[in-house]
Inverse folding.
């Protein structure tokens, strides 16, 4: 079994992959492939280079990961589905082989930089900031420079041989949710604690979204996420990404989606899968 994630080694995506493997008893006979972007991970799934791709979709502090939502609304989404999710507690460290006064630049993924605003403002005011593709890439850069510090995990510090100058520098504790993508056509059986993800657009008239959401409320189905994204077809034209508690095979969910299909301009089922339990 091969799994595609954001690289290089030491990213939080790798932590998510290892958690998913352990929780599912899949810890033997696997290989991890590293990719530069979320789009590259999705391409690897469509091209059958990997069996699964694991990508971040939202953080409890910084909100949704736009690149992942864009992938789920792209043409590639027709050839893959969400088959699982993983919750990863995020603990960020300041990595640097020197002292605070020697730091000239801080690099990290833009979500990590945003999660450490207060620390940066209080301890590293005026230091240049640069966004890179992943926290592990940042750690790699810090290992190669006498002036660059990274915001990354303790694991990546060990992996790339960088000192931890400060631990837990995130403004607040946070959790990042990752989704597991596959093109295998595998459908998870109901567990009693499931989630279904959909993408839809509504007709251009007053109350259209209200009517669509009412189909879930009418059947007592709880929505855990709703977010609008530009359709990229025209200004003011949006699609809605929705997560709902329940499995696609359950009668209430089937009835709700039939009602949505009648009222929405477009409906796409992104996946139905076991809900990750926060520990």
């Amino acid at each position: 079994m091969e799994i595609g994630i954001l690289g290089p080694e030491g990213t939080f995506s790798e932590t998510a992959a290892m958690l998913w493997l352990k929780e599912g008893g899949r810890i033997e006979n696997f290989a991890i492939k590293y990719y530069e972007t979320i789009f590259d991970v999705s391409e690897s799934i469509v091209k059958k280079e990997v069996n699964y791709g694991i990508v971040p979709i939202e953080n409890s502090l910084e909100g949704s990961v736009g690149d992942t939502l864009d992938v789920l609304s792209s043409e590639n989404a027709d050839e893959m589905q969400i088959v699982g999710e993983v919750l990863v507690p995020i603990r960020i460290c300041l990595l640097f082989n020197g002292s605070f006064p020697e730091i000239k630049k801080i690099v990290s993924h833009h979500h990590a930089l945003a999660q450490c605003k207060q620390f940066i403002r209080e301890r590293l005011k005026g230091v240049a900031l640069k966004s890179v593709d992943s926290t592990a890439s940042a750690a790699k850069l810090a290992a190669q420079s006498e002036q660059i510090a990274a915001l990354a995990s303790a694991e990546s510090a060990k992996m790339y041989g960088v000192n931890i100058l400060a631990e837990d520098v995130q403004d607040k504790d946070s959790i990042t949710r990752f989704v597991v993508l596959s093109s295998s056509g595998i459908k998870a059986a109901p567990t009693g604690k499931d989630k279904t993800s959909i993408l839809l657009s509504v007709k251009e008239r007053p109350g259209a979204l209200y009517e669509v959401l009412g189909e879930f409320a009418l059947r007592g189905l709880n929505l855990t996420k709703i977010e609008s994204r530009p359709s990229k077809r025209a200004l003011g034209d949006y699609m809605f990404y929705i997560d709902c508690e329940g499995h696609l095979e359950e009668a209430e969910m089937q009835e709700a989606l039939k009602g949505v299909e009648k009222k929405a301009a477009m409906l796409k089922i992104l996946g139905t899968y076991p809900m990750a339990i926060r520990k």
The chain has nine helices and 15 strands. The chain has three domains: 2-89+175-182, 93-169, 194-274. Residues 92 and 173 are 9 Å apart (CA to CA). The first strand starts at residue 2 and ends at 6.
